[in-house]
What we know:
By secondary structure, this protein is α+β, with helices and mostly antiparallel strands. The chain has helices spanning about 5-35, 35-40, 90-100, 255-290, and strands spanning about 45-50, 50-60, 60-70, 75-85, 105-110, 110-115, 120-125, 130-140, 145-150, 180, 185, 200, 205, 210, 215-220, 225-235, 240-250.
Amino acid sequence: MNHTTKCIRIGLLNVGALSMLLTGFASAVGAQDAPPKARSRVQVTQKTDTILNTVIFKTPQGSIRVFLPADMRPEDAIVGTASLEPKGKNENDRASNHTLLSNYILSIATQSQTVKESVHHWNLPTDNKGDGFALVLTDASQQELARIVLSLPVLSEMGGKLPSNASPNTDRISLPVKGQAGRPLVLNLPFPSRTDDLHILVGDKEARFLVASPRIYVVESPRDILGKTNLQVKRGNLIIAEGEFRNNRISNNNTWGYVIGAVVILGLVLAVSVSKAVNDVQNGVGSAHF
């Protein structure tokens, strides 16, 4: 290699290094100047059935799961809940992300409530101009991160009737006689002005409150209470309704567990058969040699 070629190569290497340095510096400056919305991407999904409208905000710190009644309508006073699912490889990471998730804010119309409060009371406006209400997620500085439109129900899409066990315009308490563990349980209750002193007990386990509207009151049936038991509604320490109740186990229609089990058993049988065959061959060879 002559002196000229060597100098050219050194020059090209220096130019490449300088280009990489400038590119890295530009990326750092761009990231520093980027707005919070670009730095912190939030994905939002929605799942609606005849009982619940479930919205999930996926943030860098974890997920925020919001439950609202699927039958909400203009002018309704409704109650929803939110649960936090922080990310983290260990307890300290999850605790730190839980704190960060608690700083997010939910908004509907002109009302805002912090995610830290697990129960949210909303008054839906009467002058809804679209087909639904927007649920907006913002950070502590009021920077909008994500939004989704909560579609209003159409009774024809719900079979022309309200969800099972829901009966509007009544003050009578009506209790279901059966439910499924871990699934929403709908009760007929007068719309509560507050939910903190209202308790739904399945057996001796309190059911987790999910949502309420003027037509339905929904809790999650406990997962660890199965079979025949009692259902109680308590206001403070006072039992205001009680009845027999059966909490059924969720049927598992997934056959993959059986398929995997069969494959494992077949593999073990084959392994034992092959091992026995090898031993027989080895014993035969040994006997012949003797």
